[in-house]
Amino acid sequence: MRKADGILKLLGLCLLAGVLLAGVMFPFVGGLGVMSNQASATVDNTSTELAKVPPPLLTTVTDAKDKRIATFYQQYRIPTASDQISDAMKWALISIEDKRFYQHNGVDWKGTARAAISNTRGGDTQGASTLTQQYVKNYLINVVYWNDNDPKHKIGRQKAQEQSIARKLKEARIAIQLETKMAKQEILTGYLNVVEFSRRIFGVGAAARAYFGVEAKDLNAAQSALLAGMVNNPAALDPWNNPERAKKRRNVVIDKMVENRKLDKADAEAIKKESLGVVKGGPDKPAANCVGAGPDHGFFCQYVEDYLLQSGMKKDDLYTGGYTIKTTLDREANKHAKRSAEEQVDKGEPNVANTLSLVKPGKKRHEVIALAANRDYGPDKDKDQTEWALPSDVVNLGGGGSTFKVFTAAAALQEREAGIHDKISVPATHRSPVFIAEKQKSCPGDKRYCVGNYPGATYPSKMTLQDALSRSPNTAFVILEEKIGMGPVVEMASKLGLRKSMAANGQGLQPNPKAERTELKLSQTDIYGPRDGWPGSGSFTLGPAALSGLELANVGATIMSEGVWCPPTPIAEVTDRHGRPYKVKEAKCQQVVPKGVANTLAVGMGEDHTEGTARGAAGSVGWGDRPMIGKTGTAQGAKASTFLGATPQLAGAAMVFRPDFPEGGLCYSGPGNVRECSADEGNMQGARTPALTWFGAMKEIHEDLPEEPLPEADPEYERFQGDG
User: Fold this and answer.
1) Which of 439, 606, 642, 648 has the CB geometry, 3.0–4.6 Å to 633, for a possible disulfide?
2) pLDDT > 70 fraction of the chain, expressed in percent and rounded
């Protein structure tokens, strides 16, 4: 044995000399700034395998009042300072992993030499690393090379875990230098903040909450021993999957604590008889994505994520950056929106979605305060859940129906074709002079566009543009559209707010510039506007185009903001892991139409709830004479219907549509009794489910808000035709 000991000592000295000659001054500077909620370390980059990378942290999403609604993460980690970790946890880890932690300089040379000999004989190198070396290894695996989807990270992780003398020597070299830069408590704390405890739970702060529902400072000896024992093999020692093995390992740690005089033997024997004490059913940790926002707020959370990614933030950064994202979500408004949507359409109704999107008008910001649907947000279809962004994305392929007449009216004002009090023609039927595409509705005998008014509706031969907006005759707006020209009408839809909607094709998708330019692969601007030789289509003003409910709501916000368009933003502010502001790249607000046009259009839309198609829905909730603008819409075949409405304080759009199979109709038999049906049977109208949804929520939301008047019409846009 003495001869063997001598060989080991000699080999240890040789290894030490080798390390020194190779360059002991390989710097690895780690500073886990947990006292300021920072979990980062610095590695001087004298090796291409190491970089200055902070640990992945949770990103927290809150509502407008700073209450958490969701978390995004790749690794569930809660940075924890040294004084926030119990002594029992520290001594349990030291006892089982590195009992000489406070004596060595970062490397246990005797153990390393023994491991090297074992390796040359076909063994492995496990069991020789100090906590300092393990900190280096875990930092490489869990911080520098955490991303399995990155090929470079995969290679880095493999090298950091390979069983070789080369890897051990490199760890030793870095560990020696690390101990010259960090105090022992810093290294111990750093290790306890980066090590994995299975199931994407990293660090003792997260593990204490997930395993036992306590803070790290409150971990007792039994709990600490279980966690300390797991670092050796987190998956194999998972207490829910392998409770007996985990208990056996825990008790080994307890015995080691007795050996190291950190635990009384009698107490240890009592602890070893205890159950594991972990929470039932698996670790208690938050969802890693918008599912954590729950069925009510998940759609809003999804829009937050989509908005940030579209602004240029990378998804990996969003999920690991440790941001705090304060949103504009108003929980109370969202509650009313969700309740109203569900009252009108049962959440379990197959292929029927009912949504409500709410946006605050303003000349500097258009803040989104609610995004709700009759369906719940989530991954379980059997529970009537969906992860489609129903209230915000371009998912209503049935179209907006007659709400698009707003764009024709706005273009008529801007192009001075008709003032809001001018009279326009309202024939019973109209035969368009425009030649149209093969797939569109045509007159008998040729391919011109034919249109009639809603069956059973009667109108005078002429009415003012204001009356037409409230009573919604089809022929009047098709004729007006043809007089103005398709270009200004189609462009008006994009200007007022349908940005993504107008960029999408007939299937709600972005056009592929490399694809063959057929109708379904063109944007709606190309389909309906005079672009690239394509003919115009009179049906545009009747709203056949794919549509985002949120963007339709933002149209109302633009009108109520005197013609100022702003992106519908869900972001109040974003701060990084250090508490510093993070600037989100957002489109600038624009004056898209003259103030006079917007204000006059608002006046023109101000009678729908008193004289027009929405008066029944308004009366059903006792809306009264509170000033507002409104416009109903129903797509061809009743496959979708919409309602756009706004007060000076809040704009909103409600939509009912077929999300899964858009072709067909929707049948209405009263509130809560809506179903999919054939196009021939369909009887849905914008004045029914959508208007009832809008008024049902907005009546409650406006309960404590003062009544504010609509803007006054600009005389310049009231009449262009004199008194005739």
Assistant:
1) 642
2) 84
